[in-house]
User: Fold this.
Amino acid sequence: MHVALIITVLFTWVMVRVAGRIYQGAILRVGGKVSLRDARRGLD
Assistant:
């Protein structure tokens, strides 16, 4: 049971980091429509 909790917490932390990078790369960009490729550049 403890292993499942640790995996869940780690996975949640990773997903929050990835979502934050995508948000930074796409939503915070000023201008027109942002392609998925440009949004993923926030992950670099």
User: Anything to note?
Assistant: The chain is about 70% helix and 0% strand.
